[in-house]
Amino acid sequence: MKTRAAAISLLLALGASGGYAAADQSKIPTPMIAGDFDNGNGGDAALPDDWWRSFNDPVLDDLVQRVLAENIDLKIAEFRVTAARALRRRAAADLLPELDFSASAGRERISGYTLGFPNSAVASQYMGAFEVSWELDVFGYVRNQVHAAESEVAAIEQDQQAARLAVLLQLSRAYLTARGLERSVEIANANKDAQEQTALYTQRLVSAGAAPIGDQQRAEAQAQSTAATVPALEVRYEQAVEELAVLLDVTPKAAHDLMNAPHAQDLSLPSLPATGVPADLLRHRPDIRAAENRVLAAFSRLGAAEADLKPRFVIGGAVGSLTSTFNSPNFARSINWLAQITGTAHLIDGGRRRSVVSLRHSEAEEARLGYQATVLNAVREVENALASVSKDGERFKSLKQSARSAAAADEQIRYSWRAGEISILDVLEADRARFVAEAALADSDTTVRLDRAVLFAAMGG
To answer: Do 284 and 317 share a structural domain?
Structure first.
């Protein structure tokens, strides 16, 4: 597909740029995705905002608002962003001059045996000083640290969006699965009731001597077999509601109350993004943007490590006052100041700094390869989601027609049986076929809806 070809071209371009010196920000690889998805029709479309609203279900909309406000994972992700922003501010502060003020006051008794002092004396001393220092970032050590911190903040912010998207998908899956299981339980109960009526009618025929006892036993066995599917469906429903409770950070009872709120019985099926989906939609995925920013952060840290091999220069100065009551205080005489520039060059450090460069280079290559893996995985997820939407949609159409035919056949066969034209075995077989077809249709309907939720999430909706 064009999607995969475009992604591979992108990865080759990124790999070719991986050897640039990270100290030059203009040469740090900035991944871009080009090319088009193509499902055969060649149109373009954009993802809808608030894609879950495409299901037109007020209960789902309410659950989404609740999970965005209460989910524990999202709260943790928010604090991680706050921490990363604090680290960025700390790194950016190194670009600015640092000004300190120090002050002291003391009282001292000087021994009379001190040279030059015939008698002991008591004196007070007062000192105050301003000190300033500013590193001249000649080789980009500080700038690269700041760029790394900024890129890391951007990556963690995208991690937060990825967590949000994952929670929304998990919520949608649990909710749509629960609604699908509700429908499956309804179908099973309806078929069970119909089969129990068949068994009751057969019992009357047996009592009247018009049918053998075996027909009654067969009818009762099939009704009980259908009834046995209900508890398993109800267990799965409880599990889905429990998952909703965990996501919403509420009790299971509260989750059941939310599910029991008035809702649309037949959820609308969200429309797909037009006929063709541009490959640039992959860039909507927060995991890809996070991986991009981690590449930038890793190369910036490499640049800082390389700059640390070079000399560093600091401008410093101080101005202050020191007075003592031993002599007559004179403010003009108490002023002292200092202005200097300091250069530091590392001559021998046992290879410590070069080992850091080697470490940062390995981390940069790891980040670059991680980005490649993220892009390829994203392409795989989108292609699989598109294939599932297409094939499961075809399956749903077939099952829908099958369920209609099975229902019609069941009614016709039941009519013929009551007229004495066919045996109970034909009725039981028609009942079983109808239940299987309707149950499969209900499962397929849920799958089709889940496919759309997965597709929106795979595209970074």
So the answer is: no
The whole-angstrom separation of Cα 382 and Cα 389 is 11
271: domain CATH number is 1.20.1600.10
DSSP code for 121:
E
**Cα-trace Rg, the chain:** 37
Distance CA 176, CA 270 (A): 13
Residues 285 and 374 placed together within one structural domain of the fold:
yes
- Are 459 and 277 contacting, i.e. CB atoms less than 8 angstroms apart? yes
Are 409 and 426 in contact, with CB atoms under 8 Å apart?
no
H or E element, residue 197: helix 141-207
CA-wise closest residue to 330 among 338, 318, 321, 339 = 321
SS3 372: helix
pLDDT digits (tens, 9 = 90+) for 71-101: 999 999 999 999 999 999 999 999 999 999 9
Burial of 421 (0-12, 13-18, 19+ CB in 10 A): exposed
Say yes or no: 263 and 394 in one domain: yes
Residue 14: burial class (beta carbons within 10 Å; 0-12, 13-18, 19+): buried
pLDDT beneath 70: ranges in the chain: 1-49, 112, 114-118, 263-268, 272-282, 326-332
Closest CA to 150 of 335, 25, 66, 314: 25
Reduce the DSSP state of residue 319 to 3 states and report it.
strand
What's the total number of domains in the chain? 2
63 and 120 housed in the same domain: no
The verdict on 12 and 129 lying in the same domain is: no
Structure token digits, residue 14: 């990124």
Are 52 and 169 contained in the same domain?
yes
Q: Is there a domain that residue 350 lies in?
A: no
- Concatenated DSSP letters for 273-315? S-S--BGGGGGG-HHHHHHHHHHHHHHHHHHHHHHTTS-EEEE
- What is the per-residue pLDDT across 151-206, written as a single tens digit (0 to 9) for each? 999 999 999 999 999 999 999 999 999 999 999 999 999 988 988 888 888 888 88
pTM: 0.81
d(CA 235, CA 229) in angstroms, rounded, equals 10
Residue 123 three-state SS: strand
Same domain, residue pair 227 and 281: yes
How open is the CA angle 169-297-156, to the nearest 5 degrees? 30
Inter-residue contact 144 to 300 (CB < 8 Å) = yes
Distance CA 98, CA 77 (A): 32
Residue 321, CA atoms < 13 Å, CB-side half-sphere = 11
* Dihedral angle over CA of 406, 410, 413, 418, nearest 10: 180
Residue 74 structure tokens: 């999202």
Q: Would you state the structure tokens that stand for residue 450, as one six-digit string?
A: 């889940």
Query: Residue 252 phi/psi, 5° resolution?
Result: -55, -35
